[in-house]
Write a sequence for this structure.
Protein backbone atom coordinates (compact mmCIF):
# COMPACT_ATOMS: atom_id res chain seq x y z
CA UNK A 1 0.00 0.00 0.00
CA UNK A 2 1.26 3.51 -0.88
CA UNK A 3 0.32 6.37 1.45
CA UNK A 4 0.45 10.13 0.91
CA UNK A 5 0.52 12.28 4.04
CA UNK A 6 -0.66 15.80 3.28
CA UNK A 7 1.02 18.33 5.55
CA UNK A 8 4.08 18.35 7.76
CA UNK A 9 2.72 19.36 11.18
CA UNK A 10 3.26 17.30 14.32
CA UNK A 11 0.39 14.94 13.60
CA UNK A 12 1.69 14.31 10.08
CA UNK A 13 5.11 13.67 11.63
CA UNK A 14 3.71 10.93 13.90
CA UNK A 15 1.88 9.24 11.02
CA UNK A 16 5.14 9.22 9.07
CA UNK A 17 7.07 8.01 12.12
CA UNK A 18 4.88 4.96 12.61
CA UNK A 19 4.75 4.17 8.90
CA UNK A 20 8.54 4.25 8.82
CA UNK A 21 8.79 2.22 12.03
CA UNK A 22 6.35 -0.40 10.78
CA UNK A 23 8.07 -0.58 7.39
CA UNK A 24 5.20 -2.32 5.58
CA UNK A 25 3.92 0.61 3.52
CA UNK A 26 5.64 3.13 1.28
CA UNK A 27 4.78 6.76 1.91
CA UNK A 28 5.41 10.29 0.75
CA UNK A 29 4.78 13.59 2.52
CA UNK A 30 3.18 16.47 0.61
CA UNK A 31 4.44 19.92 1.50
CA UNK A 32 4.23 23.42 0.10
CA UNK A 33 7.91 24.02 0.95
CA UNK A 34 11.09 21.95 1.37
CA UNK A 35 11.48 20.23 4.75
CA UNK A 36 15.17 19.34 5.19
CA UNK A 37 14.69 17.96 8.71
CA UNK A 38 12.19 15.43 7.39
CA UNK A 39 14.22 14.47 4.34
CA UNK A 40 17.23 14.01 6.64
CA UNK A 41 15.26 11.16 8.25
CA UNK A 42 15.08 9.47 4.87
CA UNK A 43 11.44 10.44 4.27
CA UNK A 44 10.38 11.52 0.78
CA UNK A 45 8.93 15.05 0.81
CA UNK A 46 7.16 16.08 -2.40
CA UNK A 47 6.60 19.78 -3.05
CA UNK A 48 3.02 20.43 -4.17
CA UNK A 49 0.82 23.36 -5.15
CA UNK A 50 -2.67 22.93 -3.67
CA UNK A 51 -3.99 25.44 -6.19
CA UNK A 52 -2.86 23.31 -9.13
CA UNK A 53 -4.98 20.22 -9.82
CA UNK A 54 -2.60 18.87 -12.43
CA UNK A 55 0.30 19.05 -9.99
CA UNK A 56 -1.67 17.28 -7.26
CA UNK A 57 -3.01 14.55 -9.55
CA UNK A 58 0.48 13.89 -10.90
CA UNK A 59 1.94 13.52 -7.40
CA UNK A 60 -0.92 11.29 -6.21
CA UNK A 61 -0.47 8.81 -9.06
CA UNK A 62 -0.20 5.30 -7.63
CA UNK A 63 -1.29 6.38 -4.15
CA UNK A 64 -3.80 4.12 -2.37
CA UNK A 65 -4.57 6.19 0.75
CA UNK A 66 -4.29 9.91 1.50
CA UNK A 67 -3.99 11.00 5.13
CA UNK A 68 -4.68 14.72 5.32
CA UNK A 69 -3.57 17.19 7.97
CA UNK A 70 -4.41 20.24 5.84
CA UNK A 71 -7.77 21.99 5.98
CA UNK A 72 -9.93 24.51 4.14
CA UNK A 73 -9.58 25.01 0.38
CA UNK A 74 -6.27 23.09 0.15
CA UNK A 75 -8.00 19.99 1.51
CA UNK A 76 -10.94 20.36 -0.90
CA UNK A 77 -8.49 20.63 -3.77
CA UNK A 78 -6.65 17.57 -2.45
CA UNK A 79 -9.91 15.59 -2.27
CA UNK A 80 -10.73 16.43 -5.90
CA UNK A 81 -7.24 15.44 -7.02
CA UNK A 82 -7.35 12.21 -5.02
CA UNK A 83 -10.55 11.15 -6.76
CA UNK A 84 -9.12 11.92 -10.20
CA UNK A 85 -5.86 10.12 -9.37
CA UNK A 86 -7.71 6.93 -8.41
CA UNK A 87 -7.01 7.06 -4.66
CA UNK A 88 -9.01 4.35 -2.86
CA UNK A 89 -9.45 5.97 0.57
CA UNK A 90 -9.15 9.47 2.00
CA UNK A 91 -8.59 10.30 5.69
CA UNK A 92 -9.69 13.94 6.18
CA UNK A 93 -8.14 16.39 8.62
CA UNK A 94 -11.04 15.96 11.04
CA UNK A 95 -9.60 14.57 14.25
CA UNK A 96 -11.92 16.11 16.85
CA UNK A 97 -15.20 14.83 18.20
CA UNK A 98 -17.79 12.53 16.69
CA UNK A 99 -19.47 13.76 13.51
CA UNK A 100 -22.90 12.95 14.92
CA UNK A 101 -22.53 15.49 17.74
CA UNK A 102 -21.80 18.55 15.63
CA UNK A 103 -24.14 21.46 15.13
CA UNK A 104 -25.64 21.94 11.63
CA UNK A 105 -24.07 25.40 11.68
CA UNK A 106 -20.77 24.86 13.47
CA UNK A 107 -18.91 27.94 14.77
CA UNK A 108 -15.77 25.82 15.17
CA UNK A 109 -15.79 24.56 11.59
CA UNK A 110 -12.63 25.27 9.57
CA UNK A 111 -13.76 23.59 6.37
CA UNK A 112 -14.38 20.13 7.84
CA UNK A 113 -18.09 20.10 6.95
CA UNK A 114 -17.39 20.96 3.32
CA UNK A 115 -14.73 18.24 3.17
CA UNK A 116 -17.07 15.58 4.58
CA UNK A 117 -19.84 16.66 2.22
CA UNK A 118 -17.55 16.30 -0.78
CA UNK A 119 -16.22 12.94 0.39
CA UNK A 120 -19.78 11.64 0.75
CA UNK A 121 -20.49 12.74 -2.82
CA UNK A 122 -17.41 10.90 -4.05
CA UNK A 123 -18.24 7.58 -2.38
CA UNK A 124 -20.45 6.62 -5.32
CA UNK A 125 -17.49 7.30 -7.62
CA UNK A 126 -15.25 4.80 -5.84
CA UNK A 127 -13.31 6.76 -3.22
CA UNK A 128 -14.06 5.75 0.38
CA UNK A 129 -13.18 7.81 3.44
CA UNK A 130 -12.58 7.28 7.14
CA UNK A 131 -12.71 9.89 9.90
CA UNK A 132 -10.53 9.28 12.96
CA UNK A 133 -12.22 10.99 15.92
CA UNK A 134 -9.91 11.39 18.92
CA UNK A 135 -11.88 13.84 21.09
CA UNK A 136 -9.55 16.49 22.46
CA UNK A 137 -5.83 16.34 21.74
CA UNK A 138 -3.67 16.25 24.88
CA UNK A 139 -1.55 18.88 23.14
CA UNK A 140 -4.09 21.53 24.15
CA UNK A 141 -2.35 21.25 27.53
CA UNK A 142 1.19 21.29 26.13
CA UNK A 143 3.62 23.98 27.38
CA UNK A 144 2.86 26.89 25.08
CA UNK A 145 -0.31 25.18 23.85
CA UNK A 146 -0.96 23.32 20.62
CA UNK A 147 0.82 26.07 18.73
CA UNK A 148 4.10 25.11 20.41
CA UNK A 149 3.45 21.48 19.51
CA UNK A 150 3.04 22.52 15.83
CA UNK A 151 -0.64 21.60 15.72
CA UNK A 152 -3.73 23.70 14.98
CA UNK A 153 -1.79 26.88 14.42
CA UNK A 154 -4.69 28.49 12.52
CA UNK A 155 -7.46 27.30 14.84
CA UNK A 156 -7.68 30.63 16.68
CA UNK A 157 -7.40 29.05 20.14
CA UNK A 158 -4.15 27.11 20.09
CA UNK A 159 -2.20 28.93 22.79
CA UNK A 160 -1.34 27.90 26.33
CA UNK A 161 -4.42 28.00 28.55
CA UNK A 162 -6.89 28.50 25.69
CA UNK A 163 -8.87 25.40 26.65
CA UNK A 164 -10.10 24.32 30.11
CA UNK A 165 -6.87 24.75 32.04
CA UNK A 166 -3.81 26.95 32.19
CA UNK A 167 -1.30 24.57 33.71
CA UNK A 168 1.24 27.29 34.39
CA UNK A 169 -1.04 29.82 36.12
CA UNK A 170 -3.22 27.07 37.67
CA UNK A 171 -6.53 28.51 36.48
CA UNK A 172 -9.35 26.44 35.01
CA UNK A 173 -12.76 26.65 33.34
CA UNK A 174 -15.13 23.73 33.95
CA UNK A 175 -18.16 23.39 31.64
CA UNK A 176 -21.21 21.49 32.91
CA UNK A 177 -23.61 19.48 30.78
CA UNK A 178 -27.40 19.82 30.62
CA UNK A 179 -27.83 17.43 33.57
CA UNK A 180 -25.68 19.62 35.83
CA UNK A 181 -22.63 17.37 35.82
CA UNK A 182 -19.09 18.24 34.68
CA UNK A 183 -18.88 17.50 30.96
CA UNK A 184 -17.27 14.25 29.86
CA UNK A 185 -14.23 14.42 27.56
CA UNK A 186 -12.41 11.79 25.50
CA UNK A 187 -8.76 12.67 24.84
CA UNK A 188 -5.76 11.37 22.92
CA UNK A 189 -2.11 12.33 22.45
CA UNK A 190 -1.15 13.32 18.89
CA UNK A 191 1.53 10.62 18.90
CA UNK A 192 -1.11 7.99 19.60
CA UNK A 193 -3.46 9.42 16.95
CA UNK A 194 -0.68 8.80 14.44
CA UNK A 195 -0.19 5.29 15.82
CA UNK A 196 -3.92 4.53 15.64
CA UNK A 197 -4.16 5.71 12.02
CA UNK A 198 -1.24 3.57 10.89
CA UNK A 199 -2.49 0.53 12.83
CA UNK A 200 -5.91 0.88 11.21
CA UNK A 201 -4.51 0.75 7.68
CA UNK A 202 -4.25 -3.03 7.80
CA UNK A 203 -7.66 -3.71 9.33
CA UNK A 204 -9.97 -5.74 7.06
CA UNK A 205 -12.87 -3.33 7.59
CA UNK A 206 -12.64 0.45 7.81
CA UNK A 207 -15.91 2.26 8.52
CA UNK A 208 -16.67 5.90 7.82
CA UNK A 209 -15.72 6.82 11.36
CA UNK A 210 -13.37 5.37 13.97
CA UNK A 211 -13.36 6.56 17.60
CA UNK A 212 -10.15 6.35 19.63
CA UNK A 213 -8.90 7.69 22.93
CA UNK A 214 -6.05 7.56 25.39
CA UNK A 215 -8.17 8.64 28.35
CA UNK A 216 -11.69 9.64 29.30
CA UNK A 217 -12.83 11.72 32.27
CA UNK A 218 -15.08 14.59 33.19
CA UNK A 219 -13.79 18.16 33.13
CA UNK A 220 -13.55 18.38 36.92
CA UNK A 221 -11.48 15.19 37.11
CA UNK A 222 -9.25 16.52 34.34
CA UNK A 223 -8.44 19.48 36.54
CA UNK A 224 -7.77 17.10 39.45
CA UNK A 225 -5.22 15.31 37.25
CA UNK A 226 -3.55 18.64 36.48
CA UNK A 227 -3.59 19.50 40.20
CA UNK A 228 -1.96 16.16 41.01
CA UNK A 229 0.79 16.93 38.50
CA UNK A 230 1.30 20.45 39.88
CA UNK A 231 0.88 19.40 43.52
CA UNK A 232 -1.44 22.34 44.17
CA UNK A 233 -5.09 23.31 43.80
CA UNK A 234 -6.26 25.24 40.74
CA UNK A 235 -8.56 28.23 40.68
CA UNK A 236 -11.86 26.89 39.29
CA UNK A 237 -14.56 28.73 37.35
CA UNK A 238 -17.68 26.64 36.74
CA UNK A 239 -19.91 27.27 33.73
CA UNK A 240 -23.32 26.08 32.61
CA UNK A 241 -24.98 26.82 29.27
CA UNK A 242 -26.46 30.12 30.50
CA UNK A 243 -23.19 31.55 31.86
CA UNK A 244 -21.36 30.51 28.70
CA UNK A 245 -23.97 32.24 26.54
CA UNK A 246 -23.46 35.42 28.57
CA UNK A 247 -19.72 35.12 28.16
CA UNK A 248 -20.13 34.57 24.43
CA UNK A 249 -22.28 37.67 24.12
CA UNK A 250 -19.61 39.72 25.88
CA UNK A 251 -16.84 38.34 23.67
CA UNK A 252 -18.79 39.13 20.52
CA UNK A 253 -19.72 42.63 21.66
CA UNK A 254 -16.05 43.40 22.28
CA UNK A 255 -15.05 41.82 18.93
CA UNK A 256 -12.70 39.45 20.73
CA UNK A 257 -12.39 36.67 18.17
CA UNK A 258 -10.00 34.52 20.20
CA UNK A 259 -12.23 34.64 23.28
CA UNK A 260 -15.25 33.84 21.10
CA UNK A 261 -13.56 30.66 19.89
CA UNK A 262 -12.50 29.74 23.43
CA UNK A 263 -16.10 30.05 24.63
CA UNK A 264 -17.43 28.05 21.69
CA UNK A 265 -14.99 25.27 22.65
CA UNK A 266 -16.38 25.25 26.19
CA UNK A 267 -19.96 25.24 24.90
CA UNK A 268 -19.18 22.33 22.57
CA UNK A 269 -17.57 20.47 25.47
CA UNK A 270 -20.66 20.98 27.62
CA UNK A 271 -22.81 19.65 24.78
CA UNK A 272 -20.74 16.45 24.65
CA UNK A 273 -19.07 17.05 21.30
CA UNK A 274 -15.67 15.78 22.42
CA UNK A 275 -16.85 12.56 24.02
CA UNK A 276 -18.09 9.18 22.81
CA UNK A 277 -19.12 6.04 24.64
CA UNK A 278 -17.56 3.54 22.28
CA UNK A 279 -13.89 3.93 21.36
CA UNK A 280 -14.33 1.33 18.62
CA UNK A 281 -10.74 1.49 17.36
CA UNK A 282 -9.03 0.89 20.71
CA UNK A 283 -10.03 -2.78 20.86
CA UNK A 284 -8.83 -3.41 17.30
CA UNK A 285 -5.19 -2.32 17.67
CA UNK A 286 -2.29 -3.93 19.48
CA UNK A 287 -0.91 -1.09 21.58
CA UNK A 288 -1.87 0.86 24.70
CA UNK A 289 -2.14 4.64 24.33
CA UNK A 290 -0.56 6.86 26.98
CA UNK A 291 -2.76 8.05 29.85
CA UNK A 292 -3.27 11.76 30.34
CA UNK A 293 -1.47 12.07 33.69
CA UNK A 294 1.61 10.24 32.39
CA UNK A 295 1.69 12.44 29.28
CA UNK A 296 1.22 15.61 31.33
CA UNK A 297 4.10 14.76 33.66
CA UNK A 298 6.38 14.01 30.72
CA UNK A 299 5.79 17.18 28.70
CA UNK A 300 5.85 19.52 31.71
CA UNK A 301 9.01 18.04 33.25
CA UNK A 302 11.52 20.84 33.61
CA UNK A 303 8.98 23.51 32.60
CA UNK A 304 7.84 24.47 36.08
CA UNK A 305 9.63 25.79 39.19
Amino acid sequence: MRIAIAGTNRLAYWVAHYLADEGQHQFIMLSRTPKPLLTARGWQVVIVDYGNQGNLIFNLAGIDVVVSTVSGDPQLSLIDAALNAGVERFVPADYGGSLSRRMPVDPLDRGQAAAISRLLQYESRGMAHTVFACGILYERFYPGGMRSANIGQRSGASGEGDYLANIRSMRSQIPYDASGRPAMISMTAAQDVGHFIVAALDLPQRPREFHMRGDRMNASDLIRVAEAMRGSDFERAQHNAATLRDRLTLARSSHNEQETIRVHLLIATGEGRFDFDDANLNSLVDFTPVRFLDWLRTVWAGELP
